[in-house]
Write a sequence for this structure.
């Protein structure tokens, strides 16, 4: 299956990304870079109360700014259909970031909700005028303080993919009698994705035909959503997103900017470009929920876990938001005799939360993997050894089989590369001048899923191959890896394959999320290539050209090209496809526990007196199944670790607990890591295929960030003796 | 908004006298941020990058005259030996791009309590040279900062240079930030030792960058000037307390007042140790914190 004409496998090679030259030469056009005749520019006006009703909007001063075309508010905006209530039975309904019908209501549901938009000839005029719109409100009592609301949290409803709670045995009883215990509370703040490219939309109506260039991770669902909201048939809507400047989940759903840009284009009859400001990105796009968690562990003196309790409280909004699988790692990581997990949530007058890289798992693994380290300390057992003593043979919570699990091997590999055996067990035992040096470890774990995607592949007599699939490329390298896969499958050179993606006019694909895009698209590409190979051998037999190249066979058969399709984009086809996909996902979930996993090893240096932390060394060994492209896959894993460093040390939306306003909606106030904060990161992958996944792929987009914050917290504890359970670990927490 | 582009200092001063509302722009690393966020909407910008006189430095009468428009990168590469304290502070500013554009004149113009050069200018006893069509004057650094982001310039004046004595003893600068680069100081500290002189100043710890006069007097009185021995811990601790006591910090998004006071004490102890060690070993340059 994986073979090329010259006998070399392309799968696995560190091939340069196809879109690299376009990006480095400025040739790539992002969503805010499409020029249309008569293009206009829009700017949003955010609400300044957390809950209330608009009593008046004075737009006179804004309208008087030269270049302003119109100011749209709920008083004069075109009517929109409200978003559908989200239901897992129709996945595309999930794509609405909120339940608010923007500019069609006088209700305000969060501080920052757009309540008006200015459309102008230039972006400067639009922004200037937006600042002059004066909105009066009748304020209503608002609940905005997550910490204060925590006691009122209610149990999360579960679904087959994400149970709200899970149980094996009686963990609380076991905890009460365990000879060694740890019982601690951990908190994480609201995090923002902060992709390099702020969310952007260019919307163009021609009659009732809509073209939207949008920085989306979800072309197919966005198209459906826009058709619904604007009351036009899906066939009339085209969403294009060949280049997206990072997403991390923040561009998975339709946020106000996209809807309002399309609305403004409809109202003005002109193309509209809306590029969010960084402040808009923080105030008008969902973020990662804050969390408060409890992890309680009980063990016998030999380090065998007898009790594992992990509970969480997160935040959703009155107008949307999702539960997060914060306690999921506790169901898969340790062979505890008794386990109880429970997730609950609060509902606030707040921007709905949304997925951010490894939703749930990223913050849940911080708590669980910190607690395991604490337990190792209580027991006096090396934290790697403790994990190995509790490494399960079967999925701990329900006894399902692992499709593949090589966490032991990942630990062994990582420990060797990192030099873990040189670590002295005692905390605060290594000093280098003013720096206290510590080493920490934590497990990375992220579930693997495969959905379905529609794909067509064409093999032409000139030897070229065209793969067409409406997947999205946010910088991960998906077009490159699918070209590698198709080239190997058809036995053609890499350069012969052209991949078309990022356009809703192409066969419908899944959203880029859940680390499932590569495996999902690969499954369909392989199936289509299999069909082509069979057609080709039939033709070869018929023409007596067995063993010859595709070009020779097709030429001899006088066939200019052959096509193969997987899935169907007709209405019925789409419905059948979704049913098939859900059935497969549920079946898969019932049969297997599947995941990518890994082991993080890091060294930190903590200034003993100021509490400043520097991460000085990193090794991570992963089991992500088969690696298709060492370069792009390793970049994903490395990027996850960098993001995790931010989560551990810097990132925190500071919230005014009285008003519900974010106080640091900018990159100067919300710190992400800079180069000087990132050490060289050594990545190793076992590269063993998972037998149940296409090509053995388990996904690399999210697993990298899981466990990172815990590894750092554990290393800081080893360096200083201080256990910090509240992220981010800022210097002040280490000196008091 | 007008964009005024003088090519000589006289022309710049005439323009500033004519239009006191014109905002000078040097590297633009503060001004452009303010414009982008619409914190400021001046009637005109007065671009100083075309004025060659401002981008020069020279030495005369035992003083370095550093033109207001010399970017940090040049302070580091050209004046690292002569003005080690200022060079240390310059190295911690922003990123390479910011250091290529940003200037000491701009740091003074902005007069942020967190500006990195201020503690060094205060501790070295620098004087700020300003000019207008009415003539020139120099202002002692400690008289220059008048409030949060306020300075002693008259509306028609421009900063033309800073006068600093070349290092003759030891100079140290230290800063705490919430990450490893591109960071506004949570607090910062400078100490300068010359025979019989001690300059001590702190930044990001009060409404204005300020000298710690008591701490300076303490050093002059208590340092073992005649016998170059390592400093006693008790002396360092007493010094750190005086420095922390000179601060008047606030809680903000970058750090709490309590942490700032604590960290200033640490920086003071450390920087004094380094400076004294340099001083008694005849002033070698050291890496800053
Ligand atoms: C990303 C980033 C990181 C930064 N990091 C740091 C940091 O780490 N430490 C730090 O201290 N600062 C930092 N800054 C702030 C800024 O870079 C410094 O304050 C710098 O010194 C400003 O110099 P400039 O030449 O760019 O000033 P400009 O922006 O040109 O001017 C700043 C102010 O000074 C006035 N001005 C300039 N020249 C004159 C003159 N000759 N006469 C009168 N007034 C004048 C201007 O009108 C303006 O009010 C950072 C800024 C950015 C954008």
């Amino acid at each position: 299956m994986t073979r090329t004409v010259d006998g070399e496998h392309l799968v696995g090679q560190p091939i340069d990304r196809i879109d690299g030259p376009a990006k480095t030469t400025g040739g790539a056009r992002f969503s805010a870079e499409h020029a249309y005749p008569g293009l206009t520019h829009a700017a949003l006006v955010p609400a300044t109360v957390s809950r209330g009703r608009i009593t008046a909007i004075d737009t006179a001063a804004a309208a008087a700014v030269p270049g302003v075309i119109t100011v749209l508010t709920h008083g004069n905006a075109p009517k929109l259909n409200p978003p559908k209530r989200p239901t897992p039975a129709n996945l595309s309904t999930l794509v609405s970031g909120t339940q608010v019908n923007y500019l069609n209501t006088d209700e305000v549901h969060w501080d920052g909700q757009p309540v008006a938009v200015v459309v102008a000839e230039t972006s400067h005029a639009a922004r200037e005028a937006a600042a002059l719109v004066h909105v009066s409100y009748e304020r209503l009592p608002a609940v905005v303080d997550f910490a204060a609301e925590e006691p009122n949290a209610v149990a999360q409803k579960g679904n087959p993919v994400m149970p709200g709670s899970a149980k094996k045995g009686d963990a609380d009883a076991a905890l009460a009698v365990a000879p060694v215990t740890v019982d601690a509370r951990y908190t994480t703040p609201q995090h923002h994705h902060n992709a390099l490219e702020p969310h952007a939309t260019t919307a163009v109506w021609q009659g009732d035909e809509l073209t939207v260039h949008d920085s989306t991770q979800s072309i197919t669902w966005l198209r459906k959503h826009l058709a619904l909201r604007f009351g036009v048939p899906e066939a009339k809507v085209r969403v294009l997103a060949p280049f997206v400047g990072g997403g991390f989940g923040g561009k998975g759903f339709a946020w106000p900017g996209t809807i309002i840009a399309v609305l403004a284009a409809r109202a003005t009859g002109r193309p509209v470009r809306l590029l969010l400001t960084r402040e808009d990105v923080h105030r008008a796009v969902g973020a990662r929920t804050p969390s408060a968690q409890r992890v309680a562990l009980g063990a016998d003196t030999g380090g065998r876990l007898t009790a594992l309790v992990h509970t969480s409280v997160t935040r959703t909004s009155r107008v949307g938001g999702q539960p997060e699988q914060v306690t999921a790692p506790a169901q898969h990581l340790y062979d505890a005799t008794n386990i109880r997990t429970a997730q609950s949530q609060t509902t606030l007058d707040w921007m709905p939360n949304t997925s951010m890289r490894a939703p749930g798992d990223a913050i849940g693994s911080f708590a669980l993997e910190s607690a395991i380290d604490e337990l190792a300390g209580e027991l006096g057992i090396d934290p790697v050894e403790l994990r190995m003593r509790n490494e399960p043979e079967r999925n701990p919570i329900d006894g399902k089989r692992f499709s593949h699990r090589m966490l032991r091997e990942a630990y062994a590999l990582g420990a060797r590369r990192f030099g873990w055996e040189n670590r002295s067990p005692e905390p605060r035992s290594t000093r280098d001048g003013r720096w206290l040096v510590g080493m920490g470890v934590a497990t990375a774990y992220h579930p693997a899923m495969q959905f379905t995607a529609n794909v067509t592949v064409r093999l032409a007599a000139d030897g070229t191959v065209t793969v067409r699939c409406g997947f999205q490329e946010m910088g991960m390298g998906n077009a490159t890896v699918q070209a590698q896969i198709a080239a190997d499958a058809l036995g053609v050179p890499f350069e012969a394959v052209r991949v078309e993606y990022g356009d809703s006019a192409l066969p419908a694909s899944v959203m880029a999320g859940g680390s499932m895009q590569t495996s999902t698209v690969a499954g369909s590409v392989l199936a289509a290539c299999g069909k082509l190979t069979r057609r080709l051998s039939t033709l070869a037999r018929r023409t007596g050209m067995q063993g010859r190249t595709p070009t020779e066979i097709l030429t001899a058969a006088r066939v200019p090209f052959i096509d193969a399709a997987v899935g169907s984009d007709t209405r019925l086809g789409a419905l059948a496809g979704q049913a098939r996909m859900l059935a497969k996902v549920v079946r898969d979930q019932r049969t297997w526990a599947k995941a990518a996993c890994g082991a993080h090893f890091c060294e930190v240096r903590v200034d003993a007196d100021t509490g400043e932390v520097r991460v000085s060394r990193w090794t991570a060994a992963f089991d992500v199944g088969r690696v298709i492209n060492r370069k792009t896959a390793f970049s994903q894993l490395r990027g996850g670790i960098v993001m995790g460093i931010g989560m551990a040390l810097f990132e925190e939306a500071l919230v005014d607990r009285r008003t519900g306003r974010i106080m640091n909606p900018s990159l100067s106030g919300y710190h992400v890591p800079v180069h000087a904060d990132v050490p060289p990161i050594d990545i190793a992958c076992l590269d063993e295929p998972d037998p149940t996944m296409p090509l053995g792929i388990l996904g690399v987009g999210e697993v990298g960030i899981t466990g990172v914050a815990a590894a750092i917290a554990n290393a800081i504890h080893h360096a200083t003796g201080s256990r910090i359970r509240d992220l981010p670990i800022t210097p002040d927490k280490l000196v008091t | 908004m007008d964009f005024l582009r003088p090519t000589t200092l006289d022309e710049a001063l005439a323009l500033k006298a004519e239009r006191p509302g014109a905002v000078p722009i040097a590297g633009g690393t503060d001004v452009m941020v303010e414009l982008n966020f619409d914190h400021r909407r001046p009637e005109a910008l007065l671009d100083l990058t075309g004025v060659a006189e401002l981008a020069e430095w020279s030495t005369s009468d035992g003083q370095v005259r550093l033109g207001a428009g010399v970017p940090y990168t040049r302070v580091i590469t050209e004046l690292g030996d002569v003005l080690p304290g200022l060079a240390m502070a310059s190295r911690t500013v922003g990123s390479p791009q910011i250091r290529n554009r940003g200037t000491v004149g701009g740091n003074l113009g902005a007069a942020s309590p967190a500006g990195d050069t201020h503690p060094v200018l205060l501790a070295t006893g620098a004087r700020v040279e300003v000019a207008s069509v009415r003539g020139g004057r120099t202002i002692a650094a400690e008289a220059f900062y008048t409030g949060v982001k306020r300075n002693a310039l008259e509306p028609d004046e421009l900063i033309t240079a800073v006068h600093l004595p070349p290092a003759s003893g030891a100079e140290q600068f230290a800063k705490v930030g919430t990450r490893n680069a591109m960071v506004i100081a949570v607090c910062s500290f400078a100490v300068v030792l010359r025979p019989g002189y001690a300059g001590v100043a702190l930044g990001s710890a009060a409404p204005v960058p300020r000298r710690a006069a008591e701490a300076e007097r303490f050093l002059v009185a208590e340092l073992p000037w005649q016998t170059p021995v390592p400093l006693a811990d008790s002396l360092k601790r007493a010094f750190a307390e005086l420095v922390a006591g000179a601060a008047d910090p606030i809680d903000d998004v970058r750090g709490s007042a309590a942490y700032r006071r604590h960290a200033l004490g640490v920086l003071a102890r450390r920087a004094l140790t380094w400076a004294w060690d340099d001083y008694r070993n005849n002033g070698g340059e050291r890496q800053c914190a």
In short: The domain at 1-48 of chain B is CATH 3.30.43.10 (Uridine Diphospho-n-acetylenolpyruvylglucosamine Reductase; domain 2). Chain B touches chain A at residues 38, 95, 176-184, 186, 253, 255-256, 258-259, 262-263, 266-267, 269-270 (CB under 8 Å). The CA atoms of residues 77 and 108 of chain B lie 21 Å apart.
